[in-house]
Design a protein that fits this description.
about 1100 residues; alpha/beta; Alpha-Beta Plaits; Rossmann fold; eight-stranded mixed β-sheet; five-stranded parallel β-sheet; adenylate cyclase activity; nucleotide-binding; ATP binding; ATPase
């Protein structure tokens, strides 16, 4: 059968060597570097599949470039230019070539791909073209090996220096050979600059590399170094040494272990297996899970929890480098048997072996030849070197088994093999045979491995066909439940409620994988992201260590299956087969078979949903990493294909998939489709109170519309999008962005001569100006808007403009005019238009209209009419069932209860509103609730609670540039500051003075009245009756002018009492008469209804 050469690509090869390039025809496994026969479909050593299918999905657009997390190493010979100038050209070439050759050999030995070789130096990639999870560690091992190898050459005139950096790059193939790759990105630049900065015989590391090799390498800081082309000096580290250690030992040795949770069932299974082993029934147990699931941690906790002295444990710990070492297990076992460390030579192990064997009662007739041979010792049995592989393994097993049995006879024995998946094939063969015939021994074999490298022994309870153990118990570790994951994160980043959204976000991404949770937590701490509170959730990136683990899994797929997985990642977390088939240009039948491979590898799971069968990514992070390997240009093209496929597959039901259509249109930068779908999706998200999503969609729609050719339809859509965004931004408390969008909308409407849309914009701008303190501007814009809407007989616009104008008038104290405007247009609010949601208001227009009617009437003393209005608003809100409508109604109801003297009921209602607002994240409403509830707390004598709530409300309003809302909090805050055990009247007077000055200047006359009333309390506390009287007179005069009957009544009654206390009976009587008249007017208002 003819094949293609894997080195040069020449086809029709049938011999053992390529007749074009001369290289041996064999397949090298990407995962373990083992050699395989040319026609192999799977690696004989680790089981990784080779590419065998010609059913190739349509390739993504682009030149085959991809994004990778790699480590780059630059090495060169110091002073080579000077050396060459003093030598004959041929001699110089030979000298430099010899050193470079030694460097290359060291780099390749540890998995480096030497993609650039100069006369005096090299560049090598670790983790590319095939991702490997320990790329940084391998680069460090290779660098130290290169230094040692060059040092052993004995030529001190040719010292080398090395620079290493880790990070993202764009990888491109430049030729047919396996080393023909080039990279682009800052990572390569930093590595090259570090090499130039390194002293002879030293290795410099970037901070990213140093971080990735924590626990593996010993490094020392050399401070910050300014590198050409890098804006800020970079923290740089010198590599001193590195030790090849299992990943578990690295993590547990380098940092404090996280909380151990969620493994009670697995611990019980291990305990049961050990119980059986203790009775002389040897057991074999495999803990099976992907990287990061906590296999080694579970084993550690289990062994640590055993009674002291009950079991003797022998541990064999493997690493990725073990795969290339034949019979690694044998040497490691012998080291354990004789008590030698990894640093002891094999000669020392061999020297101790006879003593250990004698202590076990194994006499001189014991066959030590296989053991000594594997310790590289000379043996007397010359024939041993000539026997075949199977006979050699049999001799080894016959020598090792008695040692294990004698150990188990003396003491129950646990043999631990960590990371079994890294064992070489010969070790696995010996281990499998070794445990045949051990059924009568008190021994338990506990191994940890990954799903792709299960031992393949008969499972526990199956018939084995021999006298050995009764089968292997495989324990598949499940992902941690959300509550267990949260416990881990609480221990890592904190358990405060403030961090709860951040923990939930990480949990949703880490999918219950303990290591990923730890790495997210560690990354947040080391980056300082938590220093100023929780960071924005969108800023949380996948740690480089996690990316490397997942990328290594993905790269073990064939390129064919990897492309399918990447296209699926572009589609989303859940993938329907017809959609994937349309995007890949493959037949569904063929594609289903390929999806089966991805399911078997653990990348996808099959789920039955209402709309049919879907294939879902097993882990959100796997989807993210598969997606991130694609270049932005490639992603953009694929999103466009997904968009077109979705439209074709859903011609009559696009409304049901608006979010998906908008997402893919945005990512494809298909601007007409973005304008259409994102605007619709944003408005729908806004109706559902999904504010973050609504804002993102609407801002995307606006950006798309700005890119399209100007036209009347485009301008109208641009205005609509900005007005829709208005309500969202108010709820999100982003006044600055809101004002900017409304200015743009104003320009568009003016350019188009669109009077009605201009009026809608004026309504929104008027409302903002009211809150921000420009009451004349708010009144003018709102009145203009109402005139335009009235002229156009636009009922919905009339309702919204009326509210905007009434709000400005209410803030300024023009209550009578506000009532007149509201009553004149109440019919529009009761009509059909009042039941429509408007882009100009974020609550139902009729609800906010009647709430404001209630507020104005209450301020004018007509509580009976006010309660009727709030009842009408409540009925509409209950019918609609919208959260914001109901919150608004309940807030105004609490205000009416407070003004009518029902303080206890008012507090209960307002506290419930405050809780609901916090639960639903309705931040815009907080200052108003704080002003009302804080006032009630003051009257209740809860001064500390009032002070805290009112200060929070005022600060929040200030941050939002809502001066009007801040001023509402000030009058009750004056009293809260002055009264109570911790009261400070002087501070209260100073604060009142500032409030009066600002409220008077800006025209917030009701605030002036209420602040004067509060200030009178403070003056009375301070024993300043004349000043208290003056404040009360001013309050009464202004309240009378504004029609604030209750405030005027309070001012005159308190003034009468003060005058009487100080012997001024005549003016006291006069004030009391005026107060009596006010009481009669208030009673009459109540009695009219």
């Amino acid at each position: 059968m003819s094949i293609a050469c894997p080195h040069c690509g020449e086809t029709d090869q049938s011999g053992q060597f390529c007749d074009s390039c001369g290289k041996k025809l064999e397949k090298t496994c990407r995962a373990c570097s083992a050699s395989n026969r040319p026609n192999a479909r799977f690696c004989a050593n680790c089981g990784t599949p080779f590419e065998t299918t010609d059913k190739t999905p349509a390739k993504p657009d682009g030149d085959g470039a991809q994004q990778k997390q790699v480590t780059i190493l630059f090495a060169d010979i110091c002073g080579s230019t000077e050396l060459v100038s003093r030598m004959d050209a041929e001699d110089a070439n030979h000298a430099l070539g010899s050193v470079v050759g030694v460097i290359v050999e060291a780099l390749v030995r540890f998995g480096g791909v030497v993609n650039r070789q100069m006369g005096d130096g090299v560049m090598a990639l670790f983790g590319a073209p095939v991702a490997i999870e320990d790329h940084a560690a391998r680069a460090c091992f290779a660098a130290l090996a290169a230094l040692e190898a060059v040092g052993q050459m004995g030529d001190r005139t040719l010292p080398i220096r090395i620079g290493i950096s880790s990070g993202p790059v764009i990888l491109r193939r430049t030729g047919r050979d396996e080393e023909d790759y080039d990279v682009a990105g800052i990572t390569a630049h930093i590595a090259a600059r570090l090499e130039q900065q390194a002293e002879p015989l030293t290795v410099l590391l970037s901070p990213e590399t140093a971080n990735l090799v924590t626990g593996i390498a010993e490094v020392e800081s050399v401070g910050r170094i300014a590198l050409k082309g890098i804006a800020e000096p970079l923290p740089v580290f010198r590599l001193l040494s590195a030790t090849d250690r299992p990943s578990w030992m690295v993590r547990s040795g380098a940092r404090v272990l996280s909380t151990f949770v969620g493994r009670d069932e697995e611990l019980a299974q291990l305990a049961a297996a050990l119980e059986r082993a203790s009775t002389g029934h040897a057991q074999a147990v495999a803990l099976v899970a992907d990287a990061g699931m906590g296999k080694s941690r579970l084993l550690h906790e289990f062994l640590d929890g055993l009674p002291q002295g009950a079991w003797h444990a022998i541990r064999v710990e493997t690493t990725a480098q073990s795969t290339a070492i034949p019979y690694f297990l044998i040497t490691a076992l012998l080291r354990e048997f004789v008590g030698c460390s990894q640093d002891d030579s094999t000669a020392e192990v061999a020297a101790r072996l006879p003593t250990v064997l004698a202590s076990l009662g194994l006499d001189a007739a014991f066959d030590t030849t296989p053991l000594l041979a594997h310790l590289d010792r000379e043996v007397d049995d010359v024939a041993f070197g000539t026997i075949d592989h199977a006979q050699r393994n049999l001799r080894l097993v016959r020598s090792l088994r008695p040692i294990l049995q004698r150990y188990a006879d003396l003491h129950p024995l646990i043999l631990v093999v960590e990371d079994y998946h890294w064992l070489d094939a010969s070790s696995i063969e010996v281990l499998t045979e070794l445990f045949t015939g051990l059924d009568g021994a008190r021994i338990a074999l506990l191994i940890t491995t990954r799903p792709e490298r299960r031992p393949g022994w008969p499972l526990h309870g199956q018939q084995t066909g021999n006298a050995g153990i009764t089968g292997m118990l495989e324990i598949d570790l499940k992902h941690l439940a959300a509550d267990h994951a949260d416990r881990i994160l609480k221990g890592l980043i904190g358990d405060s409620d403030e961090l709860a959204p951040l923990r939930a976000h990480i949990i949703s991404r880490a999918d219950g994988t303990p290591l990923f949770l730890e790495e997210f937590g560690r990354s947040l701490h080391e980056s300082g992201a938590l220093a100023n509170g929780p960071p924005p959730l969108e800023s949380i990136v996948i740690p480089a260590s996690v990316q490397s683990i997942l990328a290594a899994r993905i790269d073990r797929l064939s390129s064919h299956h990897r492309r399918i997985l990447q296209i699926a990642a572009v589609i989303g977390r859940d993938v329907q087969l017809p959609l994937l088939a349309a995007v890949t240009d493959m037949r569904e039948l063929n594609l289903a078979q390929e999806i089966g491979v991805l399911r078997a590898a653990g990348f996808l799971v099959e789920i039955n949903q209402r709309n049919g069968l879907v294939h879902s990514f097993s882990h959100a992070l796997t989807q993210s990493v598969a997606y991130d390997t694609l270049l932005r240009s490639v992603r953009r093209g694929l999103h466009g294909r997904v968009l077109r496929a979705l439209e074709a597959l859903n011609p009559d039901s696009r409304d049901s998939i608006l979010d998906r259509l908008a997402h893919h249109a945005i990512q494809a930068e298909a601007w007409p489709e973005v304008a259409r779908y994102a605007l619709a999706a944003g408005e729908r998200a806004s109706r559902r109170s999904a504010l973050t999503e609504a804002r993102a969609y609407l801002e995307s729609a606006i950006a798309a519309l700005d890119r399209l050719p100007p036209g009347s339809a485009t301008i109208t859509q641009g205005i609509d999008a900005r007005l829709s965004l208005r309500g969202v931004l108010i709820l999100m408390n982003d006044t600055a962005a809101l004002q900017e969008h409304l200015k743009e909308a104003d320009k568009l409407a003016d350019r188009a001569g669109d009077r009605l849309n201009l009026a809608r914009i004026y309504i929104s701008r008027g409302a903002i100006l009211s809150h921000s303190g420009d009451l004349p501007g708010a009144t003018e814009l709102s009145r203009t808007a109402l005139d335009i809407m009235t002229a156009g007989n636009d009922s919905l616009g009339i309702v919204s403009a009326t509210f905007a104008l009434a709000q400005a008038l209410w803030y300024s104290g023009d209550f009578r005019e506000a009532r007149e405007v509201l009553m004149a247009n109440v019919g529009h609010a009761r009509g059909d238009a009042g039941q429509q949601r408007s882009t100009a208001t974020f609550v139902l227009p009729s609800v906010v209209f009647f709430c404001f009617v209630a507020r104005v009437l209450s301020d004018l003393g007509d509580n009976a009419a006010a309660f009727a209005a709030i009842k009408e608003a409540g009925a509409i809100a209950d019918k609609q069932g919208h959260t914001f409508d109901q919150l608004l109604v309940n807030t105004y109801e609490g205000s009416l209860l407070l003004s009518s003297g029902q303080r206890e009921r008012s507090v209960a209602v307002l506290e419930q509103v405050l809780g609901a607002a916090q639960t639903n994240k309705v931040e815009w409403h907080f200052p108003m609730i704080a002003a009302l509830l804080g006032s009630a707390y003051v009257d209740d004598g809860r001064h500390a609670d009032a002070r805290a709530l009112l200060e929070r409300g005022a600060a929040f309003a200030d941050r939002s540039r809502h001066i009007g809302k801040r001023l509402l909090c000030c009058p009750p805050l004056v009293r809260a500051l002055a009264e109570g055990p911790e009261g400070d009247p002087k501070a209260a007077k100073s604060f009142a003075s500032l409030t009066l000055r600002e409220a008077t200047t800006r025209g917030f006359r009701p605030v002036v009245v209420r602040t004067q009333l509060a200030l009178a309390h403070v003056h009375a506390l301070e024993g300043e009756p004349e000043r208290a009287q003056e404040a009360l007179r001013d309050a009464a005069t202004l309240a009378e002018k504004l029609g604030l009957l209750r405030e005027e009544l309070e001012a005159r009654e308190r003034l009468s009492s003060l005058l009487r206390q100080h012997g001024q009976t005549k003016p006291a009587f006069s004030e009391m008469q005026a107060a009596s008249g006010l009481r009669m007017r208030l009673a009459a208002l109540s009695g009219e209804r």
